[in-house]
Amino acid sequence: MTIEQALSGFALPHALIGTVALATFWTAAMAKKGSPLHKAVGRIYLLAMIGVVLTAVPLTLAFTLQGQWVGAAFLGYLIVLVSHACRMAWLAVRYKRDFARYTGIGFRISAAVLAATGTAVVVLGVVHNAWLLIIFGLLGPLGGLDARALIRKGPSGPKWWLKEHYGAMIGNGVATHIAFMQIGLMRLFPELGSTVIQHLAWFGPLAVGIGAGFWLDRRYIRPRATPPRPAT
Questions:
Q1: Which range is the signal sequence, renumbered to this chain (predicted)?
Q2: At a CB cut-off of 8 Å and minimum separation 6, what does 196 contact?
Q3: What is the helix (H) or strand (E) element at residue 2, kind and residue range?
Q4: pLDDT at 6 over 80
Q5: Are 160 and 91 a contacting pair, CB within 8 Å?
Q6: Which of 50, 60, 61, 174 is most buried by its number of CB atoms within 10 A?
Q7: Residue 24 pLDDT greater than 70, yes or no
Q8: What does pTM read for this prediction?
Q9: What percent of the chain has a predicted confidence (pLDDT) above 70?
Q10: Which tens digits make up the pLDDT trace of 101-135?
Q11: How far apart are CA 42 and CA 201, in angstroms?
């Protein structure tokens, strides 16, 4: 057995753990926010995502040894992106009353690494004329700019941690669904591999995630003002 074959053996555990992540994501999303079910399933989801990241590392090495440099670079970038989002989702709740600790040195290093790797993927996309790499690579530097703005401006209100938490969870959800649709479904059903289906697999979850972010902001961060009652 070659090293590449040994590393590729992590594909099945990666897929199984990813299935758990997919199921628990929707369970937590549908559960009442802040309920015991939401908290318990959310922990399982984050632990599953850690498993996804750990099993993705040898897969990235396998891509590298096989000479698939573009695939290895993009998968490595996804590892950084998901790791950063998992860290934000977990610590936003843990340090919701300690903004300074949340945005400490670990947060700054993680955001800087995300911005650097995303920029590298954008350059890779420009070199290979791959718009998918360019668009998703931009999430890295944009995330770095958001982190810088958060540190500079400080908490926007008492629910700053909630926005950070569900924003990170939406990012993880987008990554989970892209991986499932682009990698899992395409391997199970190769006949789906048309250009239109592939673009839907990439941009569909991203569009839904952006819409969910606006909806949650409207509901929890910027609720509609209640019209004043007429004077009696």
A1: none
A2: none
A3: none
A4: no
A5: no
A6: 174
A7: yes
A8: 0.82
A9: 84
A10: 999 999 999 999 999 999 999 999 999 888 888 98
A11: 24
Average pLDDT of the chain, as a whole number = 84
pLDDT at 28 over 60: yes
CB atoms within 10 A of CB 229: 6
Span between the terminal Cα atoms of the chain, in Å:
84
Q: Are 111 and 143 in contact (CB under 8 A)?
A: yes
Q: How many of the other CB atoms lie within 10 Å of CB of 182?
A: 18
> What is the 3-state composition of the chain as percent helix, strand, coil, each rounded to the nearest 5?
80, 0, 20
Q: Is the dihedral of CA 191, 73, 207, 110 positive or negative?
A: positive
Q: From CA 44, how far away is CA 140, in angstroms rounded?
A: 26
Whole-number Å distance between alpha carbons of 41 and 24 = 6
Phi, psi of 96 (to 5 degrees): -65, -15
| 3 state SS of 27 | helix
Which residue is it, tokens 């926007």?
A: 156
Q: What is the CA radius of gyration of the chain?
A: 19
Q: Is 43 helix (H, G, I), strand (E, B) or coil?
A: helix
